[in-house]
Amino acid sequence: MPGPGFFARLGLFVIRDFFSPDVCAKLREEASLTAQRPTMVINITDGDRVDEQVRKSHKAKVARETELLVLERLMKIKSEVEKHFDVQLSSCEKPQFLVYREGDFFAAHLDSNDDPRAVEYMRERKISVVIFLNDSSDKAVPDSFSGGSLVFYELIDAPDWKKYAFPLDGEAGLLIAFPSKIFHEVTPVTCGERFTVVSWFSEAR
User: 92, 121, 142, 194: least CB-packed within 10 angstroms?
Assistant: First the structure.
């Protein structure tokens, strides 16, 4: 399966060890204790809702100090992200701490929407960020998960490659950023729990 370097060569922004193993462990512990709320599917016509045919995972309610820690770290790399994607960015959305348990998934989707009826933050999203807090593994290993690949589509702009899927396995501390208009999905977790932090940079106006 392609590693982080492969995705960097295709134009995505990659930082390995963005969080240290100790920080990852601390964030996993806090998220595990507070991951009670099912995640929502954003819908421009009838409001946000739980739809486990499209998305099944849980959002953790972490301490404000934990949110600020992540936001501070993300804002420190904003200039690098801007340079990489040649775009001017402003703020970063409040990070979401997500837990995917066995059977959880997120069908292929976009993180942004240009429809004028869409909520403002969906229209403003420019760059999506995913930070893995634990490793994926083919075997049942403590603090790891199986399945749950982050899959990207349309990374190669050629007709024969347009719908080709490129799966990325999780790696504790790995940050990957990509344009919010890229189709992506999370395949079903088959074992363990998958911990990630996600956020979005908005384009400067």
Answer: 142
Whole-angstrom distance, CA of residue 142 vs CA of residue 135: 10
The Cα-based distances of 141 to 133, 147, 161 in angstroms read: 14, 13, 34
Distance CA 128, CA 181 (A): 9
Q: Give start and end residues of each alpha helix (H) in 61-165.
A: 64-76, 78-85, 120-124
Please report the domains of the chain, with CATH numbers, ordered by start residue.
Answer: 4-203 (2.60.120.620)
The candidate with the shortest Cα–Cα distance to 111, out of 122, 95, 119, 120, is: 122
The burial class, CB within 10 Å (0-12 / 13-18 / 19+), for 143 is middle
Report pLDDT digits (tens) over 88-140. 999 999 999 999 999 999 999 999 988 888 888 888 999 999 999 999 999 88
